[in-house]
């Protein structure tokens, strides 16, 4: 009986996975740094820079490695912002018909994914080629992706291109 209980606890608490992870971590300890983005070596080059014309509700950021630019969203009033690598405002695109846009991620191939918190929607938009508003009805959206409700919504989308993996945070 004790053996069955012990086996059940090992599986239920994922102790086997933890043991495997620990052993693998120890085994590859010498190769961590060359195989990783070594975070202890990163330093902030721009600290707390204000974005011109944005006083409130700055909500999400994403780096566009194809264009070497930064995309940002502001909710209320909904806007998509384009920044250069130094954080200077390059473009402003009003988001007409969008509601409570709180997150943005660059998907590659000229595509952005915007997260609407209140509507529980992920909206894919093409990178704007010219100044002017973007209209919500022009774009497709994935709504009610998961069972969020009440005061919960989709917050921070993130996309890892090498693994083709989309992660969306709810809050």
User: First CA to last CA: what distance?
Assistant: 42 Å
For this structure, what is the CATH homologous superfamily of the largest domain? Answer: TolB, C-terminal domain
The largest pleated sheet is described as: 5 strands, mixed
**Which structural class matches the secondary elements?**
mainly beta
SSE string, helices as H and strands as E: HHEEEEEEEEEEE
Strand numbers in spatial order across the main sheet: 1-2-3-4-8
Helix content: 10-25%
Number of helices: 2
Mass-distribution shape = extended
Low-confidence stretches: none
CATH fold topology of the largest domain: Neuraminidase
What does this structure look like?
This protein has 171 residues and is mainly beta. It folds into two domains: 2-40, no CATH class; 55-170, Neuraminidase (6 Propeller). The protein is built from two helices and eleven strands, in the order H-H-E-E-E-E-E-E-E-E-E-E-E. A five-stranded mixed β-sheet has the order 1-2-3-4-8, with no helix packed on it. A four-stranded antiparallel β-sheet has the order 5-6-7-9, with no helix packed on it. A two-stranded antiparallel sheet has the order 10-11. The longest helix is centred in the first third of the chain and has 13 residues, at 15-27. It is extended, with a radius of gyration of 21 Å. The mean pLDDT is 87.
